[in-house]
Specification:
Layout: E1 6-10, E2 22-26, E3 30-31, E4 37-38, E5 67-76, E6 82-86, E7 91-103, E8 113-119, E9 122-126, E10 138-145, E11 168-174, E12 178-179, E13 183-189, E14 198-209
Parallel strand pairs: 10-11
Antiparallel strand pairs: 1-2, 3-4, 5-14, 6-13, 7-10, 7-12, 7-14, 8-9, 8-13
Amino acid sequence: MSSTAKQQLSRNPQNAGYSNPIKTYPVPAVTNEDGTISVPAQPVYGIDPNHEPIDMYMATRDIPGGTVVSAGGTGAIGAGGIALFVVPAGQKWLLLGMVSDTTMSATVGNRILQCRAQIAGAPIWIGAASAAVAAAQVGGYDVGFNSAIGTPSTTVRRNMANTANTNVQVREMCPLGLMGPGYNMIIADSAAVDAADSVNWNYTYVRYDL
């Protein structure tokens, strides 16, 4: 019996055209007094079947499969904010983007809009607060997902109905991407001026069934 341990490495068998894509390479090994063999730890790197050579580091690739879904809703902002989505049991979502308009009632007072991602009611991400939004104005709050946070943009855009510009606008990036069951995102007025303020929103995600 050979006391030299072996390990196997696949050489890109899908595309490279090797006649014998499996090669065996010896690694240092020590035979112990009791007859067992000790093999030093070996570094292991991910293999991309469409890419060679094997990199020490490979950029993260998108998760394959899934179903792209666009959804949305309308409702009152409520005392503690309104849930824009809740990931249901048996699914994971890869969030792509969310866009929202909050139309303020005639009740006087400056609203401060803010988005939060939560799990079991505990915030795991808090977006930038908007500038003050006055009575009867429209505050837009858009979120992109799975990206590094930069300085939020406040460039005014057209409202979702394409009838006028938003009065106050926040475009924010959230580093979160994949969210499991129970995760949700809410939009709230931290100044709590009027729970009747109306929210209209749309979002897009890739759904994975567990």
